[in-house]
Amino acid sequence: MNRWLSLKSIGALILALVVAFGVGWLAGGTGRAAIEQQLAASEERANFAQARALIGDGRVSLFLVNFGDASRRFEEARGVVERMQTKLRELGQAERAGRLEIALSHLRDAQRLAASLDSSAQGAAAEALRALGS
């Protein structure tokens, strides 16, 4: 009888450990997903801020009549926006990625105009900022 009781106790203990492990694993997985979502949202905000800052730098360069620097800043901003667009497409957010195409178009115009020493690049850069939602 004692043997049966100890086997039953051991079985209950093992079952309790398995259940505790399973609950812990599920709880950890849920927390990780939330943290990963927050991290992705933070990275997206940082990328938008970086793109806006680069466009702003380019506009200041245009004001200072430094068209070469402005063109470089607009090119850098394009790279950031293109990476954001690619990331959104990979995440299945095609509509949001498509909206970034407007900003990219304005950035291309601003870069082209700055490279040709045209001060109307200022307007294209302003439109790119508006398209990014600043």
Task: Write up this protein.
The protein has one domain: Four Helix Bundle (Hemerythrin (Met), subunit A) (Up-down Bundle). The protein is mostly helical. Helices cover 89% and strands 0% of the residues. The longest helix has 62 residues, at 2-63. The model has no long low-confidence stretch (mean pLDDT 87). α2 runs antiparallel to α3.
Total individual domains: 1
CATH topology: Four Helix Bundle (Hemerythrin (Met), subunit A)
* N-end to C-end Cα span: 77 Å
Following the backbone from N to C, one meets helices and strands in this order, namely: HHHH
List descriptors.
134 residues, mainly alpha
How are the elements arranged and paired?
Elements: H1 2-63, H2 67-90, H3 94-115, H4 121-131
Helix pairs in contact: 1-2, 1-4, 2-3, 3-4
Give a brief outline of the structure.
By secondary structure, the protein is mainly α.
